[in-house]
Structures are given as structure tokens and as C-alpha cells.
Specification:
The chain is mainly alpha-helical. It has two domains: about 5-240, no CATH class; about 245-308, no CATH class. The protein has twelve helices and no strands. The protein has helices at about 5-25, 35-50, 55-60, 70-80, 85-115, 130-135, 135-155, 160-180, 180-200, 205-235, 250-255, 265-295. It starts with a helix and ends in an 11-residue tail after the last helix.
Length: about 300
């Protein structure tokens, strides 16, 4: 069997799972989420503000002159509302998320690990999460752009030209306008990746410094417009949170129980999420040991016995 045939079968199976995964959302007349109707309401307001079709709305609401994040979801919904009714608009938006989340994750994994990796199938349990059911549309859509950003950066880390910098900057900007927290996490992840790659490929401190400044400089230039928007956001907007901060122990319990996957009944669903904790933990440990041994093998050392 040829490699081309294997790749075709893999693509077919993957997109079959993507379609299968979307059935619960598209098979229902209304797919209910907690904040989804509020997002849809805002989208209709935006549409009416653009059209000026309602004197009541135009006299009551106006666009915020401050450039804010959390706009991507509203923009997509408002554009769709020009063509479709509310129920269809929300369903199309949900379908966009359910399709492009696994597709973008697959793009990232293939960029990081090569075409032979199949770890991208692990994304499917993380599509119907609590955050998705809660209707946090901007956060959910930002994950798609985060995965594309990570994959695009890794594919072009050694060949950034003006075109690549512009495309990368656009991806970062869209991530910011989707969710500022995810944008901050994305910046930290890329910075850590740059640092790790520079350590791996540098023999001296001088080479390490040069490589880090070169790669970090590309990230800084591409991020500069968004960093300016971020600073402007925090200078002009005061954020008040009435929620009580969770303790470290409680946050650790959330990680162990994979709390974002629990939607309705914690005692029942946590039994399933515990399985995910052990499976994903085992995969992480195996991957860490495998990669560490691979690096140390080149230096004539091994982390675990039996290294060869």
C-alpha cells in the first residue's frame, strides 16, 4: 500500500469523525447554550446599527470607540445575520467551531510533529466542553486561531520573510480580537517554544542569545500592533471581577477531574473524565521520555535504562 493511499485514508477517516462529531449540533432544531442567545442578540443589534433600520436602537446604542477584544464571535454572527434568521445563524456559527477546532488542531500537530503523528484525534473529546455549552463563543473561536498561529509559526520559524510576518501578525491580531486571555497564553507558548528551540540548537551562550533575539524579534515585530492594542485596552478599561478566586487545591482538582469536560452531572461525568486524565497523562509522560531520550541519545546518554 502506498504512502499516498495511507494519507488519503487518514484524511477520509479524520473528516468522517469531524462530520460525525457535528451531528449532535446540526440534528437539533435549536442547540441550546447559556450565553449563546446573548451573543446572537448582540449580533442583531450590530446589524441594525450598521443598517440604521431602527431609530430606537440607533438612539439607544452606539459602537464603543475603544478598540476591544471579544469581537470575532460578534462579527461572524452579525455578518451571518444579514442572510439567515437567528436559529440558522447560531447553528452555522456552532458548526464553524465544531469543524475548524479539530481541523486547526490537526494543522498544529502536523506542523509540530510531522505528517505521521495521529495525536490530533485527541481533540475530539474537547469539542463539546463546558465552555462551549456555556456559550463562551469568543473564547471557543479563539482556540482555532491559537492553533493556527502555533502551527504557522513552527512551520515558518526559520524562513520568516515579510509575507510570513504579515500573515503571522494577522493571525495574532484575530486571536486578540477573539479573546485577550487566549492571546496572552499564545504569546507565552510561542516565547517558551522559541526559548526551548534556541537551547536545543545552540552550543554557546553567544549563539543562544543571537538565536533568541532573532526569533524573538520576529515575534515582537509581528505582535507589535496587538501589543499596542492590549496596552490601550488595559489603560482605558477597568476590569472588575466579583468572583471569588479559587484556591490552588481547587484548581488542581479541576485539572485532575478535567472539569471543562463536565457539562451537567459532576458525580457521573467525572468518572469518565478521570479516564481522560490517566490516558492523557500517560501520553504526556511517554512523549516526554521519548523526546528526552532522543535528545540525550545524540549526546551518548539516556534518561531511562535500556536506552540501547
Amino acid at each position: 500500500m502506498s504512502i499516498k493511499k495511507i494519507e488519503f485514508n487518514d484524511n477520509t477517516f479524520f473528516f468522517f469523525l469531524v462530520a460525525l462529531n457535528a451531528i449532535p449540533a446540526i440534528s437539533l432544531k435549536y442547540f441550546l447554550t447559556i450565553d449563546g442567545p446573548s451573543h446572537l442578540y448582540n449580533a442583531v443589534l450590530i446589524k441594525n446599527l450598521i443598517l440604521g433600520s431602527s431609530s430606537l436602537i440607533t438612539s439607544t446604542y452606539q459602537f464603543n470607540p475603544v478598540i476591544l477584544p471579544n469581537w470575532t464571535g460578534h462579527f461572524i454572527l452579525s455578518m451571518l445575520s444579514f442572510v439567515f434568521n437567528g436559529a440558522v445563524t447560531e447553528k452555522i456559527f456552532i458548526l464553524i467551531f465544531l469543524v475548524f477546532l479539530p481541523v486547526s488542531f490537526r494543522y498544529m500537530i502536523k506542523s509540530l510533529s510531522g505528517s505521521q503523528s495521529v495525536f490530533y484525534y485527541l481533540i475530539f473529546p474537547f469539542t463539546y466542553t463546558y465552555l462551549f455549552e456555556a456559550g463562551f463563543f469568543n473564547f471557543c473561536i479563539s482556540l482555532i486561531f491559537m492553533f493556527y498561529c502555533l502551527g504557522y509559526w513552527y512551520r515558518n520559524e526559520n524562513k520568516f520573510q515579510i509575507r510570513q510576518v504579515i500573515v503571522f501578525s494577522i493571525l495574532l491580531t484575530v486571536t486578540f480580537f477573539s479573546h485577550i486571555l487566549v492571546f496572552g497564553i499564545l504569546e507565552m507558548m510561542i516565547s517558551l517554544m522559541i526559548f526551548g528551540i534556541c537551547i536545543k540548537n545552540s552550543d554557546t551562550v553567544r549563539v543562544l542569545t543571537f538565536n533568541f533575539l532573532r526569533k524573538g524579534g520576529v515575534l515582537l515585530i509581528a505582535s507589535l500592533p496587538v501589543l499596542i492594542l492590549t496596552i490601550n485596552f488595559f489603560l482605558r478599561i477597568q476590569i472588575h471581577s466579583g468572583h471569588e478566586k479559587l484556591s490552588f487545591y481547587e484548581l488542581l482538582r479541576w485539572i485532575i477531574n478535567v472539569k471543562p469536560l463536565v457539562l451537567f452531572n459532576f458525580p457521573v461525568e467525572s468518572k469518565i473524565t478521570h479516564c481522560f486524565t490517566f490516558v492523557y497523562g500517560a501520553i504526556f509522560i511517554y512523549t516526554f521520555v521519548f523526546r528526552a531520550n532522543k535528545v540525550w541519545k545524540s549526546r551518548g546518554k539516556y534518561i531511562i535504562a535500556g536506552g540501547g
